[in-house]
Amino acid sequence: MDLNFTAADEAFRGEVRSFIERKLPADIRRKVLEGLRLEKDDYYRWHVRLHEQGWVAANWPKEFGGPGWNAAQQHIFEEECADAGAPILSPFGLRMVAPVIMAFASPAQQQYYLPRIRSGEHWWCQGYSEPGSGSDLASLRTRAERVGDKYIVNGQKTWTTLGHHANWIFCLVRTNAEARKQEGISFLLIDMNTPGITVRPIIMIDGEHEVNEVWFENVEVPVGNLVGEENKGWTYAKYLLGHERTNIAEVGRSKRRLKRLKEIAAKQPASDGRPLLQDARFRDRIAQVEIELMALEITNLRVIAADMEKRAPGPEASLLKIRGSEIQQTLTELMMQALGHDALPFQHAAMDPQYAGEVIGPGYGVPLSGQYFNFRKTTIYGGSNEIQRNIISKMILGF
Amino acid sequence: MNFNFSEEQQLRDTLDRYVRKDYGFEKRRGIIHSDSGWSAEVWAQLADLGVLAVGLPEEHGGLGGGPFDTLLVMEALGRGMVVEPYLATVVLGAGLVARAGSEEQKAEILPAVASGDRRLALAHYERGGRYDLSRIETSARRDGDSWVLDGHKSVVLHGAAADTLLVSAKTPSGISLFLVDAKASGVTRRDTPAQDGHRVAEVVLKSAPGDLVGAEGAALPQIELALDHAIAALCAEAVGGMSALIEATVGYLKTRKQFGVPIGSFQALQHRAVEMYLHAEQARSMSYLAADKLGVSDAAERRRAISGAKVLVGNAARYVGQQAVQLHGGIGVTDELAVGHYFKRLTMITLLFGDVDHHLAQFGEAMAA
Questions:
Q1: Interfacial residues of A (vs B; Cβ cutoff 8 Å)
Q2: pLDDT band for position A310 (50/70/90)?
Q3: Residue B4 within any structural domain of the chain
Q4: Interface contact A286-B250, CB threshold 8 A
Q5: Exposure check for chain A: N or C terminus, fewer CB within 10 A?
Q6: Inter-chain contact B271–A386, Cβ cutoff 8 Å?
Q7: Is A298–B281 a contact, with Cβ atoms under 8 angstroms apart?
Q8: pLDDT tens per residue across span A208-235
Q9: In this structure, are B354 and B236 located in the same domain?
Q10: From CA A377, how far away is CA A315, in angstroms rounded?
Q11: What's the farthest any 2 CA atoms get from each other in chain B?
């Protein structure tokens, strides 16, 4: 029993840290640390720098062009990126569709798609949810009818995160309406530039454009874009959901936000004029969430250690998702609460990093209320926390 | 990074088996209702298994184990709700002697603890001090070459089972620690059953002779460290108790039928059980962190881990205990079922050595400093 990283791990951490120090552009770092708006180019510039280093596909094995890191190294890499204020790379290509392509696509598809995901030439988004299919994803209705060597796709996807940045979308589509709902679904890769696709923004609760609706109207997709077998898409989708778990807890970013929360609480005055950080009641709230995060960090390492022993990915990921998202929400809520009345002004223009006008209240306060509102999503997306509880209930407790 | 207990595995397996086979609920009931409230037979068996020796130094008859060995022992004892004075004797008493005692004191006491021949208890807390370790009134004065103590120590864990008491007292330069023969003249002990099946004693000292442990006036940091070891151990015990309680509760939900179906088919109850599981897993992680940080030299780092663990485990133990009772319904509030007994032990653990509020404040002070 030893909770500490090996000397080799620590050396690796040093290497990662110094790389990020040298290569992460200062303007991007500032936007991330201050919670300001990020553009596609910000993500892209960081993606390219990581690609040049051979690190962009952190979770890929060597044979597909990844660095071949073990779970501990991947964790350390993520932790360092989070701590330094690196933007979260879009997970849809690197972490979601890529593992499915590696596991189920043809060698030709692998050779075509994987290098383009790494280079950033292909920017992916996810076509899963539909207006009528949220938690009950398998009820999805977007249909793909085979006509000759093409599928004709019609339907609507929604909650398509950063779909407006993407040029490719991986979709779950219904290819057999007669079969049991899970058995009539296929996994299709679609070029977003194909005629018939319309992307419409959904403005989020914080006034930001983050997610979209994607409409498909007689979109022609080559049969060669099918991954694996027709009507086996649900199996691939489940594989994808169970695959990525080293980062689901978001420990690194929550640690960074905790640091930020303390900085803010040290600057904000309590009603008696002392720093809010000296206020016993507010400090207790910080302490509670910090302790929960300390525990989650160890829980996360326990899961990673199990990964490294090649024990099958288990439902513990649901534990990490539930507690990790609750912690993120608490942290964003406390940051907002720390502002007092200064949380009220909605200063949307000041979310632009170029904004040079006047700000009401402290500059660091501008994004905090919006971030709180926005982060209510964390217990909803990626399988709502209620669905995660169902998973634990069934898979771990055996109900 | 390694979360396996490969080296410690054998001890764990042996003790788990012993607790499961030889320390059943009815046997425990007999023990807690006996005159002494603990079993000399069980104690001898724990000595035979090496459990009493595991955390003690090798040069004094111990096996040289560390905090993770203690963690495994406590988790197993927690699963079985073992009431024998392991925490009082080995973790608190022998730990203090091993860290602060003279060579002579160690040689006299530690091998006797390892062999099961001597039991110890720490008599530190007093009525007026709540959880503040420095607020004691008991005092010691020199009497020729030796010391005599006067005072009243309150709710001393397993004070009546102890052959030797470790008593803290005010002396000219601060707080000092003394070994006091429990049967010496001037020592009165009033044994009382505790809510959780353990025993506690009121200890009154009237010119009781004491043998100084460590330097005069320098005991407080040692007492604090000993209590930190005890907190880490209690966290592990709570993890064991919670895991047994969750198992029992999930089992009950699957078999108890109402409305013609097992009540575990109801999502409201399933999700409650899941929340119990989440609390227990986080508590397990925190018990590991506490054990890991006991040895660090940075006092603030140790404080954060220990107080953090006591807070998180305290919250978890409260939730798991209360919900286990609720999900069992009426039978959960009877004396007949183990569930109520686990609940009582978990509840007392949350109060021992600082409750959630106390340790939240400790953690917060370390943060704001």
A1: 1-6, 9, 72, 262, 277-278, 280, 283-284, 286-288, 290-292, 294-299, 301-302, 304-306, 316, 319, 322-323, 386, 389-390, 392-393, 396-399
A2: low
A3: no
A4: no
A5: N
A6: yes
A7: no
A8: 999 999 999 999 999 999 999 999 999 9
A9: yes
A10: 21
A11: 78
Same domain, B206 and B226: no
Domain that holds residue B209: 121-216
CB-CB: which of B4, B250, B305 is closest to A397?
Answer: B250
> Catalytic annotation on A244?
yes
CA–CA separation, A343 vs B150, rounded Å?
58
CATH number of the domain residue B359 falls in: 1.20.140.10
| Whether residue B99 has pLDDT greater than 70 | yes
Assigned domain for B261 exists: yes
Do residues A123 and A191 lie in contact, with contact meaning Cβ atoms separated by under 8 Å?
no
Residue B226's closest CA among B302, B174, B118, B336? B302
Are residues B188 and B167 both part of a single domain? Answer: yes
From A308, which residue of chain B is nearest by alpha-carbon distance?
A: B2
Number of structural domains, chain B?
A: 3
| Domain termination residue (choose one: B216, B233, B248) | B216
The answer to whether the predicted template modeling score (pTM) of the entire model surpasses 0.90 is yes
Tell me, yes or no, whether B3 lies in a domain.
Answer: no
B258 with B131, same domain: the answer is no
A41-73 residues labelled b (16+ CB within 10 A) or e (exposed): ebbbbbbebbbeeebbbbbbeeebbbbebebbb
Residue pair A128/A97 in contact (Cβ under 8 Å)? The answer is no
A298 to chain B, closest Cα gap in Å: 5
Q: In chain A, which residue's Cα lies nearest the Cα of B255?
A: A399
Using CB atoms, which residue from A72, A284, A299 is nearest to B1? A72
Tokens (6 digits) for B253: 């939900």
User: Which residue of the set A244, A263, A292, A326 is catalytic?
Assistant: A244
Domains and CATH numbers, chain A: 7-89 (no CATH), 124-231 (2.40.110.10), 245-395 (1.20.140.10)
Nearest CA in chain A to B304: A291
Instruction: Identify the residue whose tokens are 């005599």.
Output: B148
Phi, psi angles (nearest 5°) of residue A271: -60, -25
Query: pLDDT tens for residues B22-71?
Result: 999 999 999 999 999 999 999 999 999 999 999 999 999 999 999 999 99
Which of B82, B98, B118 is the endpoint of a domain? B118
Q: Which residues of A touch B68 (CB under 8 A)?
A: 1
pLDDT digits (tens, 9 = 90+) for A125-164: 999 999 999 999 999 999 999 999 999 999 999 999 999 9
